[in-house]
Amino acid sequence: MQEKEVKACIKRVIEMNDHAAFAQLVDAHKNRVYNLCLKMTRSTENAEEVAQDTFLKAYQSIRTFQGKSKFSTWLYTITYYTCLNYLRKNTVETVALLNWDAADDSEEVIGNLQTVERKEYLQKAFNYLTAEEAALLTLFYLEEHTIQEIETITKLSKASVKVKLHRTRKKLFGVLNALLKEEVTSLLH
Question: Is 28 helix (H, G, I), strand (E, B) or coil?
Fold first, then answer.
């Protein structure tokens, strides 16, 4: 959906309380909102619940959207904080048993994996990241937001976003390296 169409839908929602226009906004953004929720909550049921809460909050506060950023950036801000609040209220089990030191050759090993295997290992590795780390990687790499957009969404400084992305990439490579070593070891025994 083009930004002009988004603005027209927002205008119809605000001025005429047009539910069909809001449904168009939901349809245009539901997959990305759900994917971010899934990366942060790590559960399809929780992701669905948080995505619904996100759209409800967006509908209730759409009059506060000022158009200073893209609608998707505004919506991702709501999504991000709705996920964080959900996770705070509902304690999520965290696992921290891997050595997080990134190996120099982990990128080369990852490059040799088949696409399906890559997706499986990346999903496993994402499970070892915190919700914030998973959100940052999702926003930057999967949703292709700029550093400035992520800064707006997360309310972190530009420097913090860059540092956290760098540290999270290193952590992800360390996790992948440990997972791959574990897989190789189990195959050899």
Answer: helix
